[in-house]
TrEMBL record:
Protein name per its UniProtKB record: Alpha/beta hydrolase fold-3 domain-containing protein
Domain Alpha/beta hydrolase fold-3: start-end pairs: 91-279
GO MF, one example: hydrolase activity
Domain of life: Eukaryota
Keywords on record: Hydrolase
Keyword Hydrolase: yes
Source organism (scientific name): Aspergillus brasiliensis
Hydrolase listed as a keyword: yes
Length: 342
């Protein structure tokens, strides 16, 4: 018998409209957001100059698709691919608070994922805030994915399509999967520390962290600015494409692996969402990992938001994060294997 999913908190919620914030609050958000974008641009530029990625971490080739010719797609073939063989597809969406980054940010992950799983990995880009607020990124991605799936030069197995993303990319992975062009075609999603609910303001999320005495990650001070840039005044903050928490479970991918960080302010919403989807909302210990035929949950202990891409901290911190990531990536690969998606 199919397990009934509790949708009490997400079924037909009343709209929650984004209201205009006070003038000086908007000025503060504007300054913070553009400062973040400027510093990120300088950081990524200097990083490319100082530390060129090794050949093994570079895409097989890059491509621009007709639907969004200004956006560059990075494509990674597994090294053991034989001509004529169809490959399972992994669609990767980078993070960056909907404001910074591009497909290149995830090159190391994507190259390693192609080697690990034998999947064809396609890393996508999207236009960013504040010039391009919601739902621009969602429709940028849907348009490009349609072009990717129609690309006859790519040996894609249409029955083995997985989507995944980090942070904002995790949100977008769950967003695009709901739309008719992709709904039913995406068989699984792997989402890392996503934001899934824009219905609650940043202070509420910070105050509700289960570990308020733990280290605060870097998104806390930027959350207002990122939300200001991404969500326009008058937008329903409970729109399922914006906040996948409110999506009908039938509209989401049939299999979802949710990963969150212990000290992340976004951890609780991801944790509650995956337990609700799995019908485990009454489970006493929701920090503990679980796996059902359709859903899987892992809490990365001792980690903050962005731990998969973190560069800072002590040598010991970096070694620990690398170990945590290796364990999670190994679990994700095995989870896809169990679902016959690799």
């Amino acid at each position: 018998m199919k397990k009934q999913v509790d949708t009490t908190d997400a079924e037909s919620p009343p709209p929650l409209w984004k209201v205009r914030m006070p003038f000086w609050h908007r000025v503060d958000c504007f300054i913070r957001l553009w400062l973040l974008k400027s510093l990120a641009a300088i950081y990524f530029y200097c990083r490319r100059l100082i530390r060129q990625p090794p050949r093994r971490a570079q895409p097989t080739f890059v491509r621009r698709y007709p639907a969004r010719p200004k956006l560059i797609t990075h494509i990674f073939f597994p090294p053991n691919h034989r001509a004529g063989d169809l490959l399972p597809l992994y669609l990767n969406i980078h993070g960056g608070g909907f404001a910074v980054g591009n497909a290149q940010v995830d090159d190391r992950f994507c190259a390693a994922w192609a080697v690990r799983t034998g999947m064809l990995v396609v890393s996508l880009d999207y236009r960013r805030v504040p010039r391009h607020p919601f739902p621009t990124a969602t429709y940028d991605l849907v348009a490009q994915i349609q072009d990717v799936l129609a690309d006859e030069s790519l040996p894609i197995d249409p029955d083995r399509i997985t989507i995944g993303g980090f942070s904002a990319g995790g949100n977008l992975a769950l967003s695009v999967s709901q739309l008719p062009p992709l709904h039913g075609r995406v068989k699984a999603a792997i989402v890392y520390y996503p934001i899934v609910d824009f219905g609650h303001p940043p202070p509420v999320k910070l105050d509700s962290r289960p570990y308020t005495d733990g280290p605060r990650d870097n998104i806390g001070m930027m959350a207002w600015a990122l939300g200001w840039g991404y969500v326009c005044v008058g937008q329903n903050r409970r729109d399922p494409l914006l906040s996948p928490w409110y999506a009908n479970p039938a509209d989401l991918p049939p299999r979802i692996y949710m990963i969150a960080a212990q000290w992340d302010m976004l951890r609780l919403e991801a944790q509650k969402m995956i337990h609700r989807l799995a019908g485990l909302h009454d489970k006493e210990d929701q920090e503990a990992p679980f796996e059902t035929p359709a859903y899987k949950w892992t809490l990365a202990r001792g980690c903050t938001h962005g731990f998969t891409h973190g560069q800072g901290g002590s040598a010991g911190d970096r070694v620990y994060r690398k170990k945590v990531c290796e364990d999670i990536y190994s679990q994700a690969h095995e989870w896809l294997r169990k679902g016959a998606l690799v």
